[in-house]
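Go through this:
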Amino acid sequence: MTNRDLAIPPPSADRPPRKVNLFEAAKNSATTLAPLFPYLDEGSIVPCVTVQRGGEGRRYGRFQHLNTVDEVIMMFGTPGGLIFVGPKLHPVSTPFDDPEYPFDATIALITQRQLIGKPQREEYRFLCDGCDRRLSVTAFDATPPKRGTDRSPDDLFPTLVEGYRAAKAHNADEANLRCRHCGHLNERFPFELWGWDVYAEQGAVAARIRAATIAAASPPGSEPGGEV
């Protein structure tokens, strides 16, 4: 094997390299699992930042997440220094023993690699606090856009958007809150603490305003075009 064989090809024009400081991104993120880069199409490496902190009255809740691609997690803060690959079906909550303790905080870097030419699937499974059985399950297609053809500047990370939809649907149905196995009445899932609603709603606003800006910048009688 020669040096030529080991050479890394130059980056493509449709995915120019970017550099982001994890802690700067953490300061500005409005959601857990916030993508650090705008590349979500097939073959992309998607690193995301999650910030959680303790505080009076905080209750993050918990759920199971199924992802057909691996997630690599690197932890900073509480508990710091951990690097691991989670199982395809994994529990999700906060690492704090007491989420109301105000001095606990964590930043997690969670990275996945989008598949190329293959379907991806995810599920949200909300759990009973009384017996750990499943209260509701929402599955969705997370197959990434085709590179160079289906990608849009308004694409959002489906894990967040579908998580918001799943949590809203779960909370809206009283039958989901009363466990059919043990009878425990569960609280609604606090998706607001996870920031999924902010991400989904601000993404929709950004797409709408981008389209309006492009349309306003187009000459009269012409088709809107270009990117903003």
About this structure: Residues 75 and 81 are 6 Å apart (CA to CA). The helical segments are 3-6, 22-28, 158-172, 174-177, 191-194, 196-217.
